[in-house]
Batch of 4 targets.
Target 1
Amino acid sequence: MAFHFPKPTPEQSTTTADAGLADSHHHERPRGLMRWVLTTSHKEIGSLYLIFSLTMFFIGGIFALVVRAELFQPGLQLVEPEFFNQMTTMHGLIMVFGAVMPAFVGLANWMVPLQIGAPDMALPRLNNFSFWLLPVAFTLLLSTLFMPGGAPNFGWTFYAPLSTTYAPPSTTFFILSLHLAGISSILGAINIIATILNLRAPGMRMMDMPLFVWTWLITAFLLIAVMPVLAGVITMMLMDINFGTSFFSAAGGGDPVLFQHLFWFFGHPEVYILILPAFGIVSAIIPTFARKRLFGYASMVYATASIAILSFLVWAHHMFVVGLPLVAELFFMYATMLIAVPTGVKVFNWITTLFRGSITFEPPMLFALAFVVLFTIGGFSGLMLAIAPADFQYHDTYFVVAHFHYVLVPGAVFAIMAAVYYWLPKWTGHYPHERLSQVHFWLSVIGVNLTFFPMHFSGLAGMPRRIPDYALQFADFNMVSSLGALLYGASQLVFVLVIVMCVRGGKKAPAKAWEGAEDLEWSVPSPAPLHTFETPPNFERPVH
Amino acid sequence: MTQPNRDDHGAKKGVRRTVVRTVAALAGMFAFAFALVPLYDVFCEVTGINGKTNSSAQAVIHEEVDESRMITVQFITRGSSGLPWELDVESRQVRVHPGQTNEVNFTFHNRSDNSSWGRAVPSVSPSNASLHLRKVTCFCFEEQHLQPGERIEAPLVFQLTRDLPPEIKTVTLVYTLYPVAHKNEPLQAQVTIGKGDEA
């Protein structure tokens, strides 16, 4: 797509402001930086989200490496304990709100309109706004590192009163940045729901939608339900800190435990927000490379919805040691275990899809298969943590760290990488370099497991999390973890190399880049032109 | 909304409807987060979870004293930063029968040179005992005002009801002292230390 419009002079563009609005329909587009600042194309905004997310992934990753470097040996050697606390906190906040969530929103921006045959998102300008809130939010968050008193140091869960009475002065900035990131997610969710419900190609029923669209629809509803609760909690914190209220202060009649209830009422659905779109991605990739239809499409949809509903009934399993009455411990234990049923349905459906398929191992498939295996390991350690009496031993140890990193790194992050490899041919028109992709995959798999598997053992042996020093008996496990983290972190440079090479050139990809890929996005040329599905495609239901 | 609609007018209407509904849901959830604060207190009070006791006096239930059981009632008193007071109890532990009315005296002592307002906030453990603990008189129902160096005695009159679950052998009452900024706003926290003398 080449544009041969004369570049407007500044005078022209100011005097013809009104005409410029009308011109936007005639493909007169700002160039250079302003092209990206003002864009309303779902594809460009999707790319912006993904680039932002990758940047945050590296920043959060560097913070994680600071933590792992300090923990390489027992004793305090590299950083002050106060700075260590800031690193663990910022690592968690950046990875959850800055890397994983925007990556999924970016993928939704790119792929949801293409998969349902829509010309763009339903609210393109809102889409631009929700993206540009993010750089502001995270610049603000990162700037707290340079403030007197340092960055937030109370863990990404920011429990009161650590985050209120005993918090550094920068906490107010942290609250503001989280508000901005939250508004961004909410606006993104509204946009995705409006797009999916109203802009499907004629003939496409809800139960014809690809699973990535389904899982994102359900995720967007989760966002609508819980992001306002997060906004409420941090607003209460803001008032406790600055306006003398006592929501979470026992001295004034409040209750710190209330903070934990409110936080986890948001926090547990939040962890499904981080994983449900990953389920959708894997459900797209496995059938493609097994060259079979996805087994149990309807059960996948119902399983996703069940997981989303159950996620509102299990929040207190994060609080087993807070002094809950026995009946609450039992309720939350059984409700949590119940989630293993729909999750198990999904895992078995993926395995059944693979069964007797003609499988090939292209890079997206490698990551998707690793996802199934490693995410399931994280699911099992989650089941162990769900057992309330056992959780008294595991609580706040490295076992918990191992668990949630297994579901988030080889879970959510591997799924995002699988999605990037899967859809790069559609985005750039080139296949990613296969050999380098394989190098990236194997280094990542080895790095992830070296990093997080030993944490199960150090955690079971009692090593507490979020402490910059540890007893001597944990030295070997920690050294392995730190070396693994360095390997995993360094191997992501290969990922960047593959992406840059793929954008610049490589083996040309046809419209249908993968032999077994059936969804609507493969009917548009590769790379996808700026405008697609201006006239709605005719959706034809696959014959069963 | 199961029928996809791609004529421009219909789609626009549909988008507007979706946006209105999601924004309404958002506002509802934001309000719900704040509604959870009083709901949480009500829930704890009704179920007795969290060891919260009644904050106003209750009448004695005249019932036969259960001579077959002895319950140990322990008292723990704690000060807090920001209030230079001491709270003492005449005996750290009493043995009582369910149904019996008991009186225990507590002593408040202001160790500073300023007069100040304070309040002792109770908590009961195990929490399911809190529904069976009836307080007839308690200093914890109201705020105390102490002159510099003043010492006052305040009684706690309580009763454990006969339907106290049989597995409970010991009930612990914890009283924590908190500063109060103004007498008329009992739940207002005192944010800065040392302001209590203005009342």
Target 2
Amino acid sequence: MNLFAIAIRNLMYRPLASLLTALSMALGVALVVLVLTISGVIEKSLERTSNVGYNLIIGSKGSPIQLVFNTVFFLSKPVENIPYSYYMEYLPGDGRQKEFERIGGELKDPERNGLYSFLMKGGFAIPICMGDYVDRFRCVATTPDYFEQLKHGDANDLPYTFSAGRNFVDYSEEHGFFEAVVGAEVAESLKLKLGDQVYAAHGAETGDTHSQGFTVVGILDRTGSPNDRGAFVNIEGFYLLEGHVAPDRDEESGLEKANTAVAPERESALSKVRLPIHQREVTAILLKPNGFAAIGLEKQVNKTKFAQAVSPIAQIEGLLGLFVRPLRWALLALTSLVCIVSAISILVSIYNSMNERKKDIAVMRALGASRDHITAIILLESLLIALAGGLVGWLAGHALGPLSNPWTMPATGVKIDWLSFNSTLEPLIIPGLVLIGTLAGVIPAVAAYRTPVAKSL
Amino acid sequence: MLLEIRDLKKSYAEPGGGKVPILDIAEFHVDEGEQVVLRGESGGGKTTLLHLISGLVQPDSGSIRLEGVELTGFSEAKRDRIRASKMGYVFQTFNLLPAFTALENVRLAMTFARRAVDGSRAKDLLARVGLSDRMHYLPSQLSVGQQQRVSVARALVNRPKLLLADEPTANVDPANQSRIIELIQSSCLEERVALLLVTHSDEVSKRFARVEQLGQLNRAAQRPLTQDAV
């Protein structure tokens, strides 16, 4: 028999005490692993989503993080709108003129290119309008470019694909301007199929529902991004819905002019009449400028009075640095405290057993065991409880992660599997366990070391 | 001569700060293979003498030599090693470790002697004491007599030179008493181990050729005041 086997035998002789103390350590380690896994998933989810394929979001002045949350994650309340004509300033080349020709309406200097068009060569600008809901999901009004220009995935190199149907088009003979594409989560939750109608509701989940529906022409494959939770409708159709017409404003005061928020007359749902430019607004513009122009453009836009340019990656990084990572450290500190409490329970359990084991220790000493032998046996007992409990906790922590997939995956798009492993912090669990297991064993070991043999025999 | 004791003195501290002499032995020896019984009253210092010989306790002064080697000057660690390799110990209350089977109790002694555990040696000894079918039983599953036999096997497993037995029959019935003494004596003969057995039993003493009275050896016991204190 070696000292290791002797320590195991001693632990097995007190099965309940050993089991309970090991379980308390298992609980602590499981919590540590869960915190590491879940915070890793949140971080990964935020990082991959911030890698959206566009460099800047343009929106009205206000909270930059709200603009990012609203535009990228479909969270938080929508920000104020900006004029459609402002969006047109970002269209590359002669896009501004072409857009005017396509839509019509009132526009100053319609013959010139967009102010920022020279910075947008080879890039794109995609408008989105938000504020409505389809059931509990965000309704995102945009152009077909959203799924043609943007990509997704960790490397942001995967084109959007459809599990059924196709992308919506600017105008179709069958559905006019009223086509929609829904994310995988939306289709699954609302049991939508191609040809179904989705109806946007005003403002919130419980707001008034527009009578004009959009026909679902495409269902996206699952992407693991917030787009899984979006209902995307053609922006042209969205503008034609009641209440989506921007009123004329007084140039000096900026106040709305009465009775000007009126949509043009349309003979039928298939009419090709569009909402004029001056009656349109957008919530945000997704921009991919040419090369390194993004940095200069961001500064330039932020100097203006009513618009801001925000880099989603920078905002997400800021959010991670400001909240997510400190929160993770705080949770780790708390769960580590649970481990320390478990270590104390190991200490108490072994220490309490010392009284009844005084005679056993004295017998071992009489059989020739040195004080070092006895000390080593007690330390090994403490270590074994800590390591066995830690192993169970580690396995439990990793098992609980995948079990939570049905809830966390739709929300984050990140699948937790058995091997979701925090390569930086998790390897520290083992030396950590050895350390606290040893420390927990020190006091009982010293008590054992000092056991008076002659008196205890 | 295997064991030789000269001018051995041991006293214990009193709560008031003084010292109570408990042992004062001018000369005592045990030859190789010899079987000696040491008789004495309860509290007469018999167990203390065994603790001194085994190195569990250090004397105040005097000499204890085993195979001509002086033990009293050694460090505790070295005394532990000598006790593990050259001495066997049979206790009054058997003192088997309750978490370990009979076989493991025997093997434990080999572990502490830092010897490669020879499974067959432990099994042979248990078979010799009649426990071949009880090797994997826990002490709680063994009778009193069987427990004492395990403790004999455990004491002999490291092929010691000297077996110290502290009232090994104090807690057993008369029928078992003679069987256990017979077992210890015969085992020591077979293994050529010297035996120093402490008892206050007349029945046990009769079985030995050499019987020593601790009261006569111990000068501390001859002083009336000290005797009271002890």
Target 3
Amino acid sequence: MYNMGAYYEATSVAHAISLLQRHSGPTTKIVAGGSDVLIQMREGKLAGYTLVSIQRLDELRGVYMDDDETLRILPVTSFSHITKHPLIKEYINVLGYAVDQIGSPQIRNIGTIGGNICNGVTSADSASTLLAYDAVVEITGPAGVRRLPITDFYIKAGVVALMPDEVLTAILIPKESYENTHGHYIKYAMRNAMDIATLGCSLNVRLSPDKRAVERVRVGYGVAGPVPMRAKNAEEAGNGRPASMDTVNRAAKAALLDVNPRDSWRASKALRLHLAEELCRRAFTMAITRAGGSL
Amino acid sequence: MIQRKLITCTINGNKIQTMVDVRASLTDMLRNDYRLTSVKKGCEVGECGACNVMIDGECFNSCIYLAVWADSKHIRTVESLLGSAGELHPIQQAFVDEGAVQCGYCTPGFIMTALEIVQSGRQYTRDELKKLLSGHLCRCTGYENIVNAVEKAMKGTAQSIPETISRHRPATR
Amino acid sequence: MHVGQSLPRVDAYDKVTGRAKYTDDLVDKSALIAKVLHAQIAHGLVIKMDIGEALRVPGVVKIVTCFDVPDILFSTAGHPWSTDISHQDVADRMLLNRRVRLYGDDIAAVVAEDEIAASSALRAIRVEYEEYPHVLNPIEAMAPGAPQLHDAFLNNILKQTSAGRGDFEAAIQEPGLIRIEGEYETPMVQHSHLELPVSYAYIESGRIVIVSSTQIPHIVRRVVGQALGMPWGKVRVIKPYIGGGFGNKQDVLYEPLNAYLCQQVGGRLVKLEISREETFFATRVRHADKIRLVSYVRPNGRIVARSCDVYANQGAYASHGHSVTGKTMTAFRQLYHEEKAHRVTGHTVYTNTPAAGAMRGYGVPQAMFAVESHAEDIAAALNLDSLTFRRMNMMPVGFTDDFSKNVNYYDSLNQCIEKGRACIDYDRKRKLYQNQTGPVRRGVGMSLLWYNTAVWPISLEASSCRMVLNQDGSVQVQLGETEIGQGADTAFAQMTADVLGIPFHDVHMISTQDTDITPYGTGAYASRQTYVGGMSIRQTANMLKEKIISYAHELTRMQIYDLDIQNASIIHRPTGNALLSLGELATEALYSLSHSEHFSAEATYQCKTNAYSLGCAFAEVEVDIPLCKITLLNIVNAHDCGRLVNPQLAAAQVHGGMSMGIGYGLSERMLFDEKTGRLLNDNFLDYKLSTVLDHPRLETRFVENYEPTSAFGTKALGEPPAVPVAPAIRNAVLHATGVAINRAPLNPHELFTAFVSAGLIPTEK
């Protein structure tokens, strides 16, 4: 039994927004899958909160291709459905792979990709990939729809750029971002299931037509700072360079200029720094191989 | 005032309509209102898998699933597996034969995930099976005989036609 | 013959169908809900508690605080009671404690109509503390000036003992000895049984009835009586199926408080369920040990003298206390037999951490991690083959222990080693993996295992059994010894069937213990039940059989000494004829107009023996040095636990122990915030139990040497499998990398530190 103040169930996005307006306050929260919100409610952090549920909004489920070939991922899609979805497999397989590392099969059946980024935590397994693919978030509020690069969506640990009466309604991946691009995600955790990332690195590359050079590399990290981040120095060290171990090693070293992990009881800063370099190296190597390059 | 909501759902093949406390988890509802005590509480935060049930063909930890969300869903617990004369389902029989049961507390949850696996009609490798079962903790068996039992049940049903599973609507436009 | 066969568990059907009832499945919905308020400081005194606001929470029925409870100190250890005061467990806690000794100590309790009211009330209680400095580790706790937890225990030392053999100082004077020293640390871990600790209590006919998830119902009855200051006969304890215990439920956890709360609300039904988070800090844990070993060895590998100092973290309350450390010390003394002398000291020390109690292996996992890591270190230092080194020094065949009178009847250790090394292809891999370079390396390692069976001669060892014959020739069996998942009921049924000469399915095990009905037995611990329970089953079944045969003699006029029961029939041995079925006899006996008799037998067997249970584990690992990660590739445990009652269940028991050992070696550790003393990882996400994906195939091998002291040739198997796994993994990592890691678990944090200091991970950044 959850210590819940009140419960409102949205029947549409518009209804969700009006419920949020009507019951707005510091103790009102959207719940989608519940695998974060309900747990915090049980812990007492959200005890007595009012919940506005978008769990049953099928209009926010699914993955689609827009007319301009932008990939449109709806936020209440569960992780397991993301992984299984043909469009994801075809165009951004690394995202399906990344969310397949979350928790457990049952958690992946209930947890949603929207919830994963809206809770603002740095360890979110989908976030580093979405950052590394320059995802754009689409937010709907009383005034209509607005779009925001995902890097601007993250404000600080646990806080995202969502007003109290707004709902995340889509995550968009532009064609330019996923086209001819191959990625790899490494979740580093203490065990092989049921774990949160000690550090996560998602990296994708586009190679030159002859597969000899790195045309573009993008690197996203989770748990390397208070929010998921891009590693610009690592990317600069790789962009336009030969697809070689030397480039990979330079990029991995350069990543250390980007990351800023903290010491916590879950892992030391020293271990996380060491891993930041090592994971970048391994993810870069794998991504180049996937893209058809040879090292 | 306790806030309640009317829901209609199917539990183990029985259509029910009931007013549920909005604060209740599906575990609470199944255990307290329907005495389906195969649904166990081990952590209440979705980490152990003891409360695992099948909803519309997919498995969920019912402890972090609100009872109100069950509206219009088909829910199955391990109580639904027995034949009318009390005969065991092949998965249950495999658990007995392979010595996959010890304290028995995690068993119903594992069996429901095994049902999802068997119903898929697919043949998985042992490593794939382990990944599919990784949402369940067991402190007695070291998982060894559980994986053996699920593997046996999966292979045993390779020839038979999988039961119909109702799914979420296909997620393509 | 049923003993020796892999028969299906007697409770399997009920468990796979979800019909098996555990405590929370049985409680009536009308139950009031109790919850406990835990202190938010690690050490201090509760000065004041304001419950005014909490009492106004709708649905709250009663709040009791540490200022209200009876002034009675009690012990929670699930030991047989001793009528000798000097041998009794230390009584050092009350139902609720004003004096706070750990972050999370029990200081108040709420009884409410529902769980939300109860938890809301907990949040509304205001507590004022006088805070004292706290201490989290035993070495600091023993130092002068350290915060003191219990007035009667100077320097926080619950108990300190020493033992030895020979003249140590003289022995180490031998010229040419090589001195090898090592310090080994084991983590504080939690049992993590899947079923939470839960009980409910109500008053009926002026007596308190407690239904509880416990391993030790008869002991719970005694401790509740002691804690509440009431006659023990006024307490009735019922134990249904339980979802694992592993020693945690060999302590009396919250049953006394549950009973007290029930009294405080006029005997109404009160349920007290402990959450997973509370289970971590407020129940029991395994003692975290620091063990220092020094060995004096000849260059050929023969140990001449050795010493051992154990520092065990007792936590805030005594629970099983120094008994556990005592067993750590015994394991050190007995696995290896040096030529001249040894000495060992053990300190069990209070700290402001969760109370340490019994946990699968009872001090021996700690001992084996140290002793077997040290053995590997000695072999490496002397450049000896580690199996040769072990064989030169391990407990010899024929050894008799002066204290327990245990005899090492067989060459079990060598036989187990042979099975293990063959299974894992040890010799070949040991060579193959020498001198590896590169970032990913493999290794194989092993560890021996020393254990014994039951608690004689430290404590009483007795078991009682009752058997009742039905009209159809089937039999009900009751023991105080409990089914906790291990399969005890099935083993007992197999034994009963064999002694009585009836089919397995004609034995009805009454799984539920009820202290009003079930004969006295102390319960599931010390891997004792097939050994001691087997004795009482054999005795009781023989008594029942004697009565049946005597009646058969009346009916058939055949001589008593010529009659037997086989396959549920009365057999005339000289002719081999079946004279009548057991069912016919039983029906006749109950309804006879001339001699009606209800056949039952009940007996206590007091056991005054103990038995070694020996074995080993072999592990193969792959170490990814830059990732600081170990993949366990292969593992095998080999045991001589005597004759196997049920080979399939025996293997399953070993799997579970191995799994626990894998967690102990690789991932499990309770972590505390140094500043506040708060447990940081009190849930299954942050406390890293191994999942199915963290296990390789678990291989098991058995050597079946019939145990001469045992009723069915059996000896300990419940705990031993958990013991040798962690050191085998540690030794395999040493083989792979050349790095000796002396602190378990070998998780990435430990590996990172170790590899950096070994130069395997460069640190120029």
Target 4
Amino acid sequence: MTAAASAMSLPRSMARRFRLLPGSARAGVIIITAIVALGLLVPILSPYDLYEQVGKANAAPTFEHPFGLDSLGRDIVTRSFGAVRIDIVVAIVGVMIPLLIGTVVGGLAGTTDLRVVRGGVGLLVDGINAFPFLILALGVIAVIGTGAQAMIIAIAFTSWARYAKLARTRAAVLRDLDFVSALRLLGYSRARITVRHILPNCFSETVAYGVSDFTLVILTVAALSFLGAGVRPPEPEWGSMMADGRIYLQSAPWILVGPGIVLTITAFGVSLIGEALKDRSRG
Amino acid sequence: MAGNLIDVTDLHVTYRTAGSDVLAVRGLNLTVGAGQSTGIVGESGSGKSTVAKALVGLVPPTSGSIRIDGDLVAGERAKGYHRSSRWKVQMIFQDPYGSLDPRQQPLDAVLEAIQHWRKLPRAQARTEALDLLKSVGITERQATSGLRALSGGQRQRISIARALAPSPQVLVADEPTSSLDQSAQAAILNLLRRIQAERGLSVIFISHDLGLVRYLTEDVIVMKDGFVVEQGPTDQVLHHPTQEYTQRLIASALA
């Protein structure tokens, strides 16, 4: 599918444009690369296991355990970086699935001449967007159950509508531009013009927003796990680690601080990239 | 008439809007031979752009007929444009910023058009696309860069190359230079004149600027409020206008 191919060519074009990126975005790329690298390396290289007790519960930070130990006596540095895998994977999938669905649905709805389809999709999209994001995601989880997969489904179910709205508006503008007429005169079919010309242009708009939504999804994953609706223990995940730590906020604040720092740095790095892409798509 | 490439008979176009119907074109007859060029002039709202759109098939006529190279493309019992006729007529649009896919490289835009019409090996099609772009003054470097870096004049050249890709017989140019600066305007006009001569193209040149029409066309149609006010050889119409409206148009152009 061309739409998918276009989304997949994004990393390549991003690499090509790295040097043209503003300084802040380059910093963002470097931060995220470092976080991902640490997320892969720390659990392997760390002398401590992700799931095993390595010392006294709630032990304060020391030279051996810079972020301290959690309530089960596990090393927080190891677990904070161990959580990168699951959190970033859930965030990537949680952005990509709704982005694909939303852009295609919105792009087609914005291009079609069928008023019923346009109106129906519009109503659905506005209806979903009218709900507070987290509440709706929780509602979906209440129906389908908890866990990483359920979380991805819940996020996809709620956030595709935001991309659909963006894509629908963009497609409606594009379809009236002269280039669409020019392509019709060249004898291209309607399907070809939609798939090869209108949808890729919708994607360049939604992908820019998708990157900044990445932060939102990371925070949502953390929030859902914090509320007990996300990743199940003992799997390391920032939100559930922080939820775990809040009971000991006064006696052992480091339990909450460690994953909080890694989460904040990740979200910061991603939003730096997202802002640059948004500026770019605004031209 | 068999010898004419374009044969338009009693063309009427009405836009139906919620409030009232707009009679955009009210009875236009036009014949253009192969390699000839015809200008259509008039003020905004005179219906000249609607004629262009009807000619290429973007707007359906309310009545009348359009024949291109003998094919009935609009009118009663018309089949519309099909693969056998679609390539014959192409159009250049007014806004060079809206007439290219913002995401597509210039080379790909031309390459896609070439491959759509002729099944060529990709390498050969690419060479042809680059040659075509070169013939309108676009270098390989410009052709493989993003659109962002290109000026209005360069974009218009790319539009022209893309329109030429199916080797059309007729080029309809709707105010192709009105959003360009003076020097780009002159360059595009010269380019249109050159490709017309080289390829034996018929050109329908739509403009509000009488000077441009004089430079580029042999025949001219003057339109006002959807009606044809005056029609004939360009020199004759511009030097010896018989209608008051044409005289006013010429006077205001000189002023």
